[in-house]
Amino acid sequence: MFRLKVTKDSYERTLSTKEANECYLMITKDALKLFPPAGKTFELRIGNHVYDAYIRSMPCTCMGPDKPHSHYYLEGDYKERVKWGKGKGINIKRLSAGIYLLSQD
After folding, report:
1. What's the confidence (pLDDT) of residue 38?
2. Taking the CB of residue 73, how many other CB atoms lie within 10 A of it?
3. Which pTM was predicted?
4. CA distance 34 to 100
5. What values do phi and psi take at 65, rounded to 5?
6. Which pLDDT band, with edges at 50, 70 and 90, does 105 fall under?
7. Do 80 and 5 touch, CB atoms closer than 8 A?
8. Contact (CB, 8 A) for 53 and 26
9. How far apart are CA 91 and CA 85, in angstroms?
10. Is the pLDDT of residue 92 over 80?
11. Residue pLDDT, tens place only, 22-73
């Protein structure tokens, strides 16, 4: 079952099939408020590992040329530490300004 939950200090969601197959993590528009502005680097912790990460904004016309918008993705060298799979849960918690913890369930 798909899960999406955004609070002032956390972002929880279930990986889609496309995300799992292509090894990327989409950040929903309502979750942007949790992160630094797009392009600004922050610290992402996964277990005992620390990575530089950032939110990438990508222009899109997937809803047609009359409805341009952007999609947002979590970028960085963290991807080798994620267990990619359809339906896997991703949890990102803001620990303090500029420091985040990614865990999976």
Report:
1. 96
2. 15
3. 0.92
4. 10
5. -65, -20
6. confident
7. no
8. no
9. 14
10. yes
11. 999 999 999 999 999 999 999 999 999 999 999 999 999 988 999 999 999 9
Kind of pairing between the strands at 25-27 and 42-46: unpaired
Domains and CATH numbers, the chain: 4-104 (2.40.330.10)
Mean pLDDT of 5-26: 95
DSSP-derived secondary structure for the chain: ---EEE-SSEEEEEPPHHHHHHT-EEE-GGGGGGSPPTT--EEEEETTEEEEEEEEEEEE-TT-TTS-EEEEEEEEGGGGGS---TT-EEEEEEEETTEEEEEE-
Termini Cα distance of the chain: 13
